[in-house]
Amino acid sequence: MSDKFIKGFSKLSKEGKIEWVAEHYFNNADEGKALLEKYWHPDAKTQKLHDEFIENTITNFYLPFGVAPNFKINDEVYALPMAIEESSVVAAAAKSASFWYERGGFKTEVVSTKKVGHVHFVYYGDYNKLWEFFNDIKARFYEDTAHITANMRKRGGGILDLMLIDKNFEEPNYYQIKATFETVDSMGANFINTCLEEFAQTLQREIAASNLFTEEEKNIQIIMCILSNYTPECLVRAEVSCPVEFLATDGVSAEEFVQKFERAVHVARIEPYRATTHNKGIMNGIDAVVIATGNDFRAIESACHTYAARSGQYRSLTDCSVKDGIFRFWIEVPLALGTVGGLTSLHPVVKLAHEMLGNPSAKELMGIVAVSGLAQNFGALRALVTTGIQRGHMKMHLLNVLNQLEATDDEKKQMVAHFKDKVPHYNEIVTAFCNLRGVASVEDLKK
Ligand code: MEV
Protein backbone atom coordinates (compact mmCIF):
# COMPACT_ATOMS: atom_id res chain seq x y z
CA MET A 1 0.00 0.00 0.00
CA SER A 2 1.23 3.50 -0.86
CA ASP A 3 2.68 5.50 2.04
CA LYS A 4 0.40 8.28 0.78
CA PHE A 5 -2.66 6.28 1.87
CA ILE A 6 -3.87 7.11 5.37
CA LYS A 7 -6.65 5.74 7.54
CA GLY A 8 -8.26 7.99 10.14
CA PHE A 9 -6.94 11.27 8.70
CA SER A 10 -10.04 13.12 9.93
CA LYS A 11 -9.31 12.00 13.50
CA LEU A 12 -5.90 13.71 13.56
CA SER A 13 -5.66 17.13 15.22
CA LYS A 14 -5.32 20.12 12.91
CA GLU A 15 -1.57 20.20 13.59
CA GLY A 16 -1.40 16.45 12.93
CA LYS A 17 -3.16 16.86 9.60
CA ILE A 18 -0.83 19.68 8.57
CA GLU A 19 2.23 17.64 9.56
CA TRP A 20 1.04 14.63 7.59
CA VAL A 21 0.13 16.63 4.45
CA ALA A 22 3.40 18.58 4.63
CA GLU A 23 5.47 15.46 4.99
CA HIS A 24 3.74 13.57 2.17
CA TYR A 25 2.73 16.21 -0.33
CA PHE A 26 4.73 19.44 0.01
CA ASN A 27 8.07 19.89 -1.76
CA ASN A 28 9.35 21.92 1.16
CA ALA A 29 7.47 20.98 4.34
CA ASP A 30 8.61 24.00 6.38
CA GLU A 31 7.81 26.52 3.66
CA GLY A 32 4.43 24.91 3.02
CA LYS A 33 3.54 24.92 6.71
CA ALA A 34 4.61 28.55 7.07
CA LEU A 35 2.34 29.49 4.16
CA LEU A 36 -0.63 27.68 5.67
CA GLU A 37 -0.05 29.51 8.93
CA LYS A 38 0.23 32.87 7.18
CA TYR A 39 -3.30 32.42 5.90
CA TRP A 40 -4.81 31.64 9.31
CA HIS A 41 -7.04 34.25 10.83
CA PRO A 42 -5.28 36.00 13.75
CA ASP A 43 -8.44 35.81 15.85
CA ALA A 44 -8.72 32.21 17.12
CA LYS A 45 -12.52 32.37 17.39
CA THR A 46 -12.93 33.47 13.77
CA GLN A 47 -10.45 30.82 12.65
CA LYS A 48 -12.38 28.12 14.52
CA LEU A 49 -15.58 29.23 12.80
CA HIS A 50 -13.91 28.77 9.42
CA ASP A 51 -12.32 25.48 10.47
CA GLU A 52 -15.74 24.11 11.26
CA PHE A 53 -17.42 25.03 7.97
CA ILE A 54 -15.91 21.90 6.44
CA GLU A 55 -13.89 18.84 7.45
CA ASN A 56 -10.10 18.59 7.50
CA THR A 57 -9.49 22.37 7.29
CA ILE A 58 -5.78 23.19 7.22
CA THR A 59 -5.93 26.88 6.29
CA ASN A 60 -8.13 29.48 4.59
CA PHE A 61 -8.38 30.14 0.89
CA TYR A 62 -8.95 33.83 0.21
CA LEU A 63 -10.99 35.26 -2.62
CA PRO A 64 -11.14 39.00 -3.20
CA PHE A 65 -14.38 40.59 -2.00
CA GLY A 66 -15.09 43.54 -4.31
CA VAL A 67 -17.92 46.02 -4.68
CA ALA A 68 -19.71 47.15 -7.83
CA PRO A 69 -21.62 50.35 -7.01
CA ASN A 70 -24.39 52.27 -8.81
CA PHE A 71 -26.83 49.46 -9.53
CA LYS A 72 -30.29 50.98 -9.84
CA ILE A 73 -32.68 48.05 -9.38
CA ASN A 74 -36.43 48.70 -9.23
CA ASP A 75 -35.54 52.32 -8.41
CA GLU A 76 -33.39 51.42 -5.38
CA VAL A 77 -29.64 51.96 -5.57
CA TYR A 78 -27.37 49.07 -4.58
CA ALA A 79 -23.65 48.40 -4.28
CA LEU A 80 -23.21 44.72 -5.14
CA PRO A 81 -20.82 42.61 -3.06
CA MET A 82 -18.85 40.30 -5.37
CA ALA A 83 -16.46 37.52 -4.37
CA ILE A 84 -14.45 36.48 -7.42
CA GLU A 85 -10.85 35.97 -8.50
CA GLU A 86 -11.21 36.92 -12.18
CA SER A 87 -9.86 40.38 -12.95
CA SER A 88 -12.22 42.73 -14.80
CA VAL A 89 -15.52 41.14 -13.62
CA VAL A 90 -16.16 43.75 -10.90
CA ALA A 91 -14.97 46.58 -13.14
CA ALA A 92 -17.30 45.38 -15.93
CA ALA A 93 -20.22 45.14 -13.48
CA ALA A 94 -19.61 48.67 -12.21
CA LYS A 95 -19.33 50.01 -15.77
CA SER A 96 -22.63 48.40 -16.83
CA ALA A 97 -24.31 49.60 -13.63
CA SER A 98 -23.35 53.23 -14.33
CA PHE A 99 -24.33 52.90 -17.98
CA TRP A 100 -27.83 51.68 -17.08
CA TYR A 101 -28.16 54.02 -14.10
CA GLU A 102 -28.43 56.84 -16.59
CA ARG A 103 -30.89 54.92 -18.73
CA GLY A 104 -33.56 53.97 -16.19
CA GLY A 105 -31.82 51.14 -14.36
CA PHE A 106 -32.78 47.48 -14.04
CA LYS A 107 -36.25 46.08 -13.44
CA THR A 108 -36.81 42.64 -11.93
CA GLU A 109 -39.75 40.31 -11.47
CA VAL A 110 -39.85 37.03 -9.56
CA VAL A 111 -41.89 34.69 -11.72
CA SER A 112 -42.21 31.83 -9.20
CA THR A 113 -40.46 30.40 -6.14
CA LYS A 114 -41.25 26.68 -6.12
CA LYS A 115 -38.64 24.02 -5.39
CA VAL A 116 -38.84 20.32 -6.05
CA GLY A 117 -37.59 17.07 -4.54
CA HIS A 118 -38.16 13.38 -5.22
CA VAL A 119 -38.43 10.06 -3.52
CA HIS A 120 -37.06 7.73 -6.20
CA PHE A 121 -38.29 4.19 -5.72
CA VAL A 122 -38.85 0.81 -7.33
CA TYR A 123 -42.24 -0.94 -7.21
CA TYR A 124 -43.03 -4.32 -8.79
CA GLY A 125 -46.76 -4.07 -9.39
CA ASP A 126 -49.68 -2.40 -11.06
CA TYR A 127 -49.28 1.37 -11.43
CA ASN A 128 -53.00 2.18 -11.27
CA LYS A 129 -53.33 0.37 -7.96
CA LEU A 130 -50.37 2.30 -6.56
CA TRP A 131 -51.76 5.57 -7.92
CA GLU A 132 -55.14 5.11 -6.23
CA PHE A 133 -53.48 4.06 -3.00
CA PHE A 134 -51.09 7.03 -3.09
CA ASN A 135 -53.96 9.48 -3.50
CA ASP A 136 -55.94 7.78 -0.70
CA ILE A 137 -53.08 8.15 1.78
CA LYS A 138 -51.83 11.55 0.60
CA ALA A 139 -52.91 13.30 3.80
CA ARG A 140 -50.60 10.97 5.77
CA PHE A 141 -47.54 12.48 4.08
CA TYR A 142 -48.57 15.91 5.30
CA GLU A 143 -49.46 14.63 8.79
CA ASP A 144 -46.22 12.70 9.22
CA THR A 145 -44.15 15.75 8.30
CA ALA A 146 -46.23 18.28 10.27
CA HIS A 147 -43.55 18.54 12.98
CA ILE A 148 -40.88 19.24 10.30
CA THR A 149 -42.97 21.77 8.38
CA ALA A 150 -44.47 23.64 11.38
CA ASN A 151 -41.98 26.54 11.40
CA MET A 152 -41.88 26.79 7.64
CA ARG A 153 -45.69 26.95 7.52
CA LYS A 154 -45.62 29.76 10.09
CA ARG A 155 -43.35 31.68 7.70
CA GLY A 156 -45.73 31.10 4.78
CA GLY A 157 -44.03 28.08 3.24
CA GLY A 158 -44.29 24.30 3.37
CA ILE A 159 -45.27 21.45 1.09
CA LEU A 160 -47.26 22.70 -1.90
CA ASP A 161 -47.97 19.49 -3.75
CA LEU A 162 -47.29 15.76 -3.87
CA MET A 163 -47.58 13.66 -7.01
CA LEU A 164 -46.88 10.10 -7.97
CA ILE A 165 -44.94 9.92 -11.23
CA ASP A 166 -44.73 6.85 -13.45
CA LYS A 167 -41.22 6.48 -14.90
CA ASN A 168 -41.64 2.79 -15.65
CA PHE A 169 -41.46 3.38 -19.41
CA GLU A 170 -37.98 4.94 -19.08
CA GLU A 171 -36.55 2.65 -16.38
CA PRO A 172 -38.35 -0.61 -15.51
CA ASN A 173 -40.38 -0.42 -12.27
CA TYR A 174 -39.10 3.05 -11.45
CA TYR A 175 -41.49 5.60 -9.87
CA GLN A 176 -41.20 8.88 -8.04
CA ILE A 177 -42.99 10.89 -5.43
CA LYS A 178 -42.49 14.38 -6.77
CA ALA A 179 -42.87 16.96 -4.00
CA THR A 180 -43.12 20.70 -4.53
CA PHE A 181 -42.12 23.10 -1.77
CA GLU A 182 -42.15 26.77 -0.85
CA THR A 183 -39.18 27.53 1.40
CA VAL A 184 -39.64 31.33 1.65
CA ASP A 185 -36.32 32.98 2.61
CA SER A 186 -34.29 29.82 3.14
CA MET A 187 -32.63 27.90 0.33
CA GLY A 188 -34.38 24.96 1.95
CA ALA A 189 -32.16 22.02 0.99
CA ASN A 190 -32.14 20.47 4.47
CA PHE A 191 -35.83 21.10 4.97
CA ILE A 192 -36.70 19.47 1.64
CA ASN A 193 -34.44 16.46 2.15
CA THR A 194 -35.77 15.86 5.67
CA CYS A 195 -39.35 15.92 4.38
CA LEU A 196 -38.48 13.55 1.53
CA GLU A 197 -36.90 10.99 3.85
CA GLU A 198 -40.03 11.11 5.99
CA PHE A 199 -42.23 10.62 2.88
CA ALA A 200 -40.25 7.49 2.01
CA GLN A 201 -40.90 6.04 5.46
CA THR A 202 -44.60 6.86 5.24
CA LEU A 203 -44.85 5.20 1.85
CA GLN A 204 -43.08 2.04 2.99
CA ARG A 205 -45.07 1.82 6.22
CA GLU A 206 -48.47 2.43 4.61
CA ILE A 207 -47.91 -0.09 1.83
CA ALA A 208 -46.67 -2.70 4.29
CA ALA A 209 -49.79 -2.21 6.43
CA SER A 210 -52.23 -2.34 3.51
CA ASN A 211 -54.02 -5.52 2.41
CA LEU A 212 -54.41 -4.22 -1.16
CA PHE A 213 -50.91 -5.32 -2.16
CA THR A 214 -49.33 -8.74 -2.68
CA GLU A 215 -46.12 -9.54 -0.78
CA GLU A 216 -44.10 -8.80 -3.94
CA GLU A 217 -45.83 -5.47 -4.43
CA LYS A 218 -45.27 -4.54 -0.79
CA ASN A 219 -41.56 -4.95 -1.30
CA ILE A 220 -40.93 -1.43 -2.65
CA GLN A 221 -37.32 -0.32 -2.70
CA ILE A 222 -36.43 3.28 -1.90
CA ILE A 223 -33.53 4.23 -4.17
CA MET A 224 -32.99 7.73 -2.80
CA CYS A 225 -34.65 10.83 -1.41
CA ILE A 226 -33.18 14.11 -2.62
CA LEU A 227 -34.10 17.61 -3.66
CA SER A 228 -33.54 18.60 -7.27
CA ASN A 229 -31.20 21.48 -7.96
CA TYR A 230 -33.10 22.02 -11.18
CA THR A 231 -35.55 24.75 -10.21
CA PRO A 232 -37.27 25.96 -13.40
CA GLU A 233 -40.15 27.14 -11.23
CA CYS A 234 -37.92 29.19 -8.95
CA LEU A 235 -37.50 31.74 -11.66
CA VAL A 236 -36.61 35.41 -11.88
CA ARG A 237 -36.48 37.87 -14.74
CA ALA A 238 -34.38 41.03 -14.97
CA GLU A 239 -34.53 43.56 -17.76
CA VAL A 240 -33.12 46.83 -19.05
CA SER A 241 -34.62 48.92 -21.81
CA CYS A 242 -34.16 52.31 -23.42
CA PRO A 243 -34.64 54.08 -26.75
CA VAL A 244 -32.15 52.82 -29.32
CA GLU A 245 -30.63 56.28 -29.78
CA PHE A 246 -29.38 56.25 -26.17
CA LEU A 247 -27.00 53.42 -27.00
CA ALA A 248 -24.22 55.08 -28.96
CA THR A 249 -21.06 53.72 -27.37
CA ASP A 250 -17.27 53.69 -27.70
CA GLY A 251 -17.20 55.45 -31.07
CA VAL A 252 -19.92 53.20 -32.57
CA SER A 253 -23.29 54.62 -33.67
CA ALA A 254 -26.38 53.53 -31.72
CA GLU A 255 -27.86 51.73 -34.76
CA GLU A 256 -24.69 49.80 -35.52
CA PHE A 257 -24.19 48.92 -31.86
CA VAL A 258 -27.73 47.60 -31.45
CA GLN A 259 -27.59 45.67 -34.70
CA LYS A 260 -24.31 43.96 -33.73
CA PHE A 261 -25.50 43.40 -30.15
CA GLU A 262 -28.73 41.75 -31.32
CA ARG A 263 -26.76 39.56 -33.70
CA ALA A 264 -24.37 38.56 -30.90
CA VAL A 265 -27.27 37.49 -28.67
CA HIS A 266 -28.86 35.53 -31.50
CA VAL A 267 -25.57 33.77 -32.22
CA ALA A 268 -25.60 32.63 -28.58
CA ARG A 269 -29.17 31.37 -29.00
CA ILE A 270 -28.37 29.16 -31.96
CA GLU A 271 -24.72 28.20 -31.47
CA PRO A 272 -23.89 26.10 -28.36
CA TYR A 273 -20.16 26.85 -28.61
CA ARG A 274 -20.89 30.56 -28.27
CA ALA A 275 -23.80 30.01 -25.84
CA THR A 276 -21.43 28.29 -23.39
CA THR A 277 -19.03 31.25 -23.31
CA HIS A 278 -21.89 33.75 -23.33
CA ASN A 279 -23.45 32.03 -20.30
CA LYS A 280 -20.03 31.67 -18.63
CA GLY A 281 -19.84 35.45 -18.70
CA ILE A 282 -23.32 35.65 -17.15
CA MET A 283 -22.21 33.24 -14.42
CA ASN A 284 -19.22 35.53 -13.69
CA GLY A 285 -21.75 38.06 -12.42
CA ILE A 286 -24.17 35.57 -10.86
CA ASP A 287 -21.60 33.43 -9.01
CA ALA A 288 -19.72 36.41 -7.58
CA VAL A 289 -22.82 37.70 -5.78
CA VAL A 290 -24.01 34.20 -4.93
CA ILE A 291 -20.66 33.43 -3.24
CA ALA A 292 -20.50 36.80 -1.46
CA THR A 293 -23.99 36.22 -0.06
CA GLY A 294 -23.10 32.72 1.17
CA ASN A 295 -25.22 30.79 -1.29
CA ASP A 296 -24.41 27.53 -3.07
CA PHE A 297 -22.95 28.52 -6.45
CA ARG A 298 -22.67 24.89 -7.62
CA ALA A 299 -26.42 24.47 -7.23
CA ILE A 300 -27.05 27.74 -9.07
CA GLU A 301 -24.62 26.80 -11.85
CA SER A 302 -26.19 23.40 -12.46
CA ALA A 303 -29.73 24.83 -12.43
CA CYS A 304 -28.84 27.62 -14.86
CA HIS A 305 -27.14 25.29 -17.31
CA THR A 306 -30.00 22.76 -17.27
CA TYR A 307 -32.40 25.66 -17.82
CA ALA A 308 -30.28 26.90 -20.71
CA ALA A 309 -30.68 23.46 -22.31
CA ARG A 310 -34.43 23.08 -21.66
CA SER A 311 -35.35 23.26 -25.36
CA GLY A 312 -33.09 20.29 -26.08
CA GLN A 313 -30.25 22.56 -27.19
CA TYR A 314 -27.94 24.61 -24.95
CA ARG A 315 -28.78 28.27 -25.53
CA SER A 316 -28.16 31.77 -24.23
CA LEU A 317 -29.79 32.70 -20.89
CA THR A 318 -30.31 36.27 -22.10
CA ASP A 319 -32.31 37.61 -24.99
CA CYS A 320 -32.99 40.97 -26.58
CA SER A 321 -35.42 42.70 -28.88
CA VAL A 322 -35.83 45.98 -30.70
CA LYS A 323 -39.38 47.18 -31.25
CA ASP A 324 -40.75 50.65 -32.00
CA GLY A 325 -37.30 52.13 -31.43
CA ILE A 326 -36.97 50.56 -27.95
CA PHE A 327 -34.09 48.23 -27.13
CA ARG A 328 -34.85 45.57 -24.51
CA PHE A 329 -32.35 43.16 -23.00
CA TRP A 330 -33.37 40.57 -20.43
CA ILE A 331 -32.42 37.44 -18.57
CA GLU A 332 -34.59 34.69 -17.16
CA VAL A 333 -32.85 32.36 -14.72
CA PRO A 334 -33.71 29.82 -12.05
CA LEU A 335 -32.14 31.04 -8.79
CA ALA A 336 -32.90 29.06 -5.64
CA LEU A 337 -31.32 31.40 -3.10
CA GLY A 338 -31.55 31.83 0.63
CA THR A 339 -31.16 34.85 2.86
CA VAL A 340 -31.58 33.01 6.17
CA GLY A 341 -29.87 29.90 7.54
CA GLY A 342 -26.68 28.17 6.44
CA LEU A 343 -23.64 30.36 5.84
CA THR A 344 -25.83 33.48 5.70
CA SER A 345 -26.06 33.56 9.48
CA LEU A 346 -22.56 32.21 10.23
CA HIS A 347 -19.95 33.84 8.02
CA PRO A 348 -19.22 37.39 9.23
CA VAL A 349 -18.38 38.74 5.74
CA VAL A 350 -21.45 37.08 4.25
CA LYS A 351 -23.55 38.80 6.94
CA LEU A 352 -21.98 42.11 5.95
CA ALA A 353 -22.76 41.43 2.29
CA HIS A 354 -26.43 40.95 3.22
CA GLU A 355 -26.31 44.14 5.28
CA MET A 356 -24.89 46.03 2.27
CA LEU A 357 -27.85 44.83 0.24
CA GLY A 358 -30.31 45.97 2.92
CA ASN A 359 -30.86 42.44 4.28
CA PRO A 360 -32.97 41.42 1.28
CA SER A 361 -35.60 38.71 1.21
CA ALA A 362 -34.81 35.67 -0.94
CA LYS A 363 -37.04 37.13 -3.66
CA GLU A 364 -35.18 40.45 -3.59
CA LEU A 365 -31.85 38.64 -3.71
CA MET A 366 -33.05 36.64 -6.72
CA GLY A 367 -33.62 39.93 -8.54
CA ILE A 368 -30.25 41.37 -7.50
CA VAL A 369 -28.35 38.27 -8.61
CA ALA A 370 -30.18 38.11 -11.93
CA VAL A 371 -29.27 41.76 -12.51
CA SER A 372 -25.64 40.97 -11.79
CA GLY A 373 -25.72 38.28 -14.51
CA LEU A 374 -27.48 40.56 -16.98
CA ALA A 375 -25.11 43.48 -16.32
CA GLN A 376 -22.08 41.25 -16.76
CA ASN A 377 -23.43 39.91 -20.05
CA PHE A 378 -24.19 43.42 -21.26
CA GLY A 379 -20.65 44.52 -20.40
CA ALA A 380 -19.08 41.54 -22.16
CA LEU A 381 -21.22 41.91 -25.30
CA ARG A 382 -20.70 45.65 -25.41
CA ALA A 383 -16.94 45.17 -25.34
CA LEU A 384 -17.02 42.23 -27.77
CA VAL A 385 -18.99 44.06 -30.45
CA THR A 386 -17.08 47.34 -30.10
CA THR A 387 -13.50 47.50 -28.81
CA GLY A 388 -12.93 43.75 -28.37
CA ILE A 389 -12.64 42.05 -25.02
CA GLN A 390 -8.88 42.09 -24.62
CA ARG A 391 -8.50 45.80 -23.98
CA GLY A 392 -10.37 45.69 -20.67
CA HIS A 393 -9.18 42.21 -19.77
CA MET A 394 -5.51 42.83 -20.31
CA LYS A 395 -5.64 46.13 -18.43
CA MET A 396 -6.72 44.21 -15.33
CA HIS A 397 -4.36 41.39 -16.19
CA LEU A 398 -1.52 43.92 -16.26
CA LEU A 399 -1.66 44.23 -12.47
CA ASN A 400 -1.61 40.44 -12.04
CA VAL A 401 1.49 40.17 -14.21
CA LEU A 402 3.14 43.07 -12.39
CA ASN A 403 2.42 41.37 -9.07
CA GLN A 404 4.02 38.19 -10.41
CA LEU A 405 7.06 40.27 -11.31
CA GLU A 406 7.03 41.77 -7.80
CA ALA A 407 6.71 45.34 -9.05
CA THR A 408 6.62 48.12 -6.45
CA ASP A 409 3.63 50.48 -6.23
CA ASP A 410 5.57 53.18 -8.02
CA GLU A 411 6.61 50.80 -10.81
CA LYS A 412 2.97 49.69 -11.18
CA LYS A 413 1.91 53.33 -11.62
CA GLN A 414 4.53 53.88 -14.31
CA MET A 415 3.57 50.70 -16.13
CA VAL A 416 -0.17 51.51 -16.04
CA ALA A 417 0.66 54.93 -17.53
CA HIS A 418 2.87 53.26 -20.16
CA PHE A 419 0.03 50.95 -21.30
CA LYS A 420 -2.71 53.58 -21.05
CA ASP A 421 -3.67 53.44 -24.74
CA LYS A 422 -2.35 49.97 -25.59
CA VAL A 423 -3.55 46.39 -25.14
CA PRO A 424 -0.85 44.97 -22.88
CA HIS A 425 0.11 41.40 -23.80
CA TYR A 426 2.28 39.33 -21.48
CA ASN A 427 5.54 39.58 -23.42
CA GLU A 428 5.12 43.33 -23.89
CA ILE A 429 4.53 43.80 -20.17
CA VAL A 430 7.66 41.81 -19.34
CA THR A 431 9.76 43.72 -21.89
CA ALA A 432 8.50 47.11 -20.70
CA PHE A 433 9.10 46.12 -17.08
CA CYS A 434 12.64 44.94 -17.81
CA ASN A 435 13.28 48.26 -19.60
CA LEU A 436 11.94 50.14 -16.60
CA ARG A 437 14.25 48.26 -14.28
CA GLY A 438 17.11 48.60 -16.77
CA VAL A 439 17.70 44.85 -17.05
CA ALA A 440 17.93 42.65 -20.13
CA SER A 441 15.65 39.72 -19.19
CA VAL A 442 13.25 38.27 -16.60
CA GLU A 443 16.09 36.19 -15.18
CA ASP A 444 17.97 39.41 -14.44
CA LEU A 445 15.01 40.69 -12.41
CA LYS A 446 15.64 37.98 -9.83
CA LYS A 447 19.31 38.83 -9.38
C1 MEV B 1 -14.76 35.85 -19.64
O1 MEV B 1 -14.68 35.42 -18.30
C2 MEV B 1 -16.20 35.96 -20.06
C3 MEV B 1 -16.44 36.32 -21.52
O2 MEV B 1 -15.74 35.42 -22.37
C4 MEV B 1 -17.93 36.25 -21.75
C5 MEV B 1 -18.34 36.40 -23.20
O3 MEV B 1 -17.58 36.05 -24.11
O4 MEV B 1 -19.52 36.78 -23.39
C6 MEV B 1 -15.91 37.70 -21.82
- Helix and strand content put the structural class at alpha+beta
Along the chain, the helix and strand elements come as: HHHEEHEHHHEEHHEEHHHEEHHHHHH
- Overall 3D geometry? globular
**What is the distance, rounded to the nearest whole angstrom, between the alpha carbons of the first and last residues?**
44 Å
Low-confidence stretches: none
Please, what is the average pLDDT? Answer: 95
CATH class descriptor of the largest domain: Alpha Beta
Strand content: 15-25%
Count of spatially separate domains: 4
Radius of gyration, whole Å: 27 Å
CATH topology of the largest domain: 3-hydroxy-3-methylglutaryl-coenzyme A Reductase, Chain A, domain 2
Topology:
Layout: H1 14-25, H2 29-38, H3 44-51, E1 65-73, E2 76-83, H4 89-101, E3 107-122, H5 127-136, H6 138-144, H7 146-154, E4 158-166, E5 174-182, H8 189-209, H9 215-218, E6 221-227, E7 234-243, H10 254-270, H11 272-292, H12 297-308, E8 318-323, E9 326-334, H13 348-356, H14 362-385, H15 390-404, H16 409-418, H17 426-437, H18 442-445
Antiparallel strand pairs: 1-2, 3-5, 3-6, 3-7, 4-5, 7-9, 8-9
Helix pairs in contact: 1-2, 4-14, 10-11, 11-12, 11-14
Bound molecules: (R)-mevalonate.
Residues 86, 277-278, 280-281, 284, 380, 384, 389 line the site of (R)-mevalonate.
Give your account of this protein's structure:
The protein has helices at residues 14-25, 29-38, 44-51, 89-101, 127-136, 138-144, 146-154, 189-209, 215-218, 254-270, 272-292, 297-308, 348-356, 362-385, 390-404, 409-418, 426-437, 442-445; strands spanning 65-73, 76-83, 107-122, 158-166, 174-182, 221-227, 234-243, 318-323, 326-334. By secondary structure, it is α+β, with helices and mostly antiparallel strands. The protein folds into four domains: 1-62, no CATH class; 65-110 and 237-388, 3-hydroxy-3-methylglutaryl-coenzyme A Reductase, Chain A, domain 2 (Alpha-Beta Complex), CATH 3.90.770; 112-227, Alpha-Beta Plaits (2-Layer Sandwich); 392-445. The strands form two sheets. Strands 3, 4, 5, 6, 7, 8 and 9 form a seven-stranded antiparallel sheet that branches. It has a two-stranded antiparallel ribbon with strand order 1-2. It starts with 13 loop residues before the first helix and ends with a helix. The structure holds (R)-mevalonate.
